[in-house]
Design brief:
This protein is 33% helix and 30% strand. The protein is an alpha/beta fold and 326 residues long. It folds into 2 domains: 223 residues, P-loop containing nucleotide triphosphate hydrolases (Rossmann fold, 3-Layer(aba) Sandwich); 84 residues, 2-Layer Sandwich (Alpha-Beta Plaits), CATH 3.30.70. The strands form 3 sheets. A 6-stranded mixed β-sheet has the order 6-7-8-3-9-10, with helices on both faces. A 4-stranded antiparallel β-sheet has the order 2-1-4-5, with helices on one face. α6 links the parallel β7 and β8. α3 packs parallel to α5, α4 crosses α5 and α5 packs parallel to α6. The longest helix is centred in the middle third of the chain and has 18 residues.
Length: 326
């Protein structure tokens, strides 16, 4: 659906040039929600703006639905952009227009008749739960309502792809959760492919199927969220499950980190270990996170007893990732 190949973006000229993107390669499958996670200045906004050529890459190619969008200009580019919706952090609504007129604006540019515009606007406002706000002005709306208007407007042309540029970072946590639920519902109901950028781990946890971590303009890690979260060595897992430092382990005990995924996250593993292998198990720290419908957890514990080795083998037979620290 979206293919980004060896994309570089440079601002300015040597010796004062700034390299915003460094050989970025991404593949966003059709119908998935793909997150790009990174801190401020990592190049996230530049990357997403390159996808619809609001920023043109210095080099590399971007393909959307198999069409090389980086090779287009003029009328061909405008036509291609109609298949790509975009929502923004600061909403970008027209303050002098009502909610209905904001949503209708892209349809006006397309030359759609007034009757067809009105029908489409009502359909879109119903989709985002704002059918009662059609004649309201943006100044009278909450932040979450403004973003719902922005989402409705981005869907006016029935796009295949939705780009989200930090769309929830200006919202409170409860409103963020509601907007993300709406995006996930649109993804499922319409088969909409969503590429979003964010600096918030909770956004990735709540709705993303895949994630790429961007640092200083380069992709340093990418993959399915659930798989990366279950891999202790991944940057994503280390951010989700920070480990306490300076453990004080009892003499003769074995310090282990155990990662649980799927159904195993709900199993009474430690009580089984105590009964079956006569172990003393002391849990030092731990956390369980939900990724959509899947749960992943990580625990640090010390094992004491004469059957530590067979107990660790048993855990690995269950499909758990076991890391021994001493």
């Amino acid at each position: 659906m979206i293919t980004i190949e060896h994309v570089r973006k440079i601002y300015g000229r040597a010796p004062n040039e700034v390299v915003a993107l460094k050989n970025v390669n991404l593949e966003v499958p059709k119908g998935e929600i793909f997150g790009v996670l990174g801190q401020s200045g990592a190049g996230k906004s530049t990357l997403i703006r390159c996808v619809n050529l609001l920023e043109r890459p210095t080099s590399g190619r971007i393909l959307v639905n198999g069409q090389e969008i980086t090779a287009l200009s003029g009328g061909e580019l405008r036509k291609a952009r109609q298949r790509i919706g975009m929502i923004f952090q600061q909403f970008n609504l027209l303050s002098s227009r009502t909610v209905a007129d904001n949503v209708a604006f892209p349809l006006e540019l397309m030359g759609l008749s007034k009757t067809k515009r009105q029908a489409r606007v009502l359909e879109l406002l119903s989709l985002v739960g704002l059918e009662d706000k059609a004649n309201t002005y943006p100044a009278q709306l909450s932040g979450g309502q403004k973003q719902r208007v922005g989402i409705a407007r981005s869907l006016a042309n029935s796009p295949d792809i939705l780009l989200s540029d930090e769309a929830t970072s200006a919202l409170d946590p409860q409103t963020t959760h509601a907007i993300l639920d709406l995006l996930r519902d649109l993804n499922k109901r319409m088969g909409l492919t969503i590429l979003l950028i964010t600096h918030e781990m909770n956004v990735v946890k709540q709705i993303c199927h895949q994630v790429a971590i961007l640092e200083d303009g380069a992709i340093v890690e990418q993959g399915r969220v659930s798989q990366l979260a279950a891999l202790p060595s991944s940057r994503l897992a280390q951010a989700l499950f920070p480990r306490p430092q300076n453990y004080s382990v009892q003499p003769g005990a074995t310090l282990v980190t155990i990662t649980f995924a799927g159904d195993s996250a709900s199993e009474p593993v430690f009580s089984t270990l105590a009964r079956r292998f006569m172990l003393d198990v002391n849990i030092l720290s731990g956390n369980i996170e939900a990724f959509g419908e899947e749960r992943i957890g990580q625990l640090q514990a010390e094992f004491s007893g004469e059957q530590v080795a067979p107990a660790l083998a048993y855990l690995r037979e269950l499909g758990l990732h076991v890391e021994v620290h001493n």
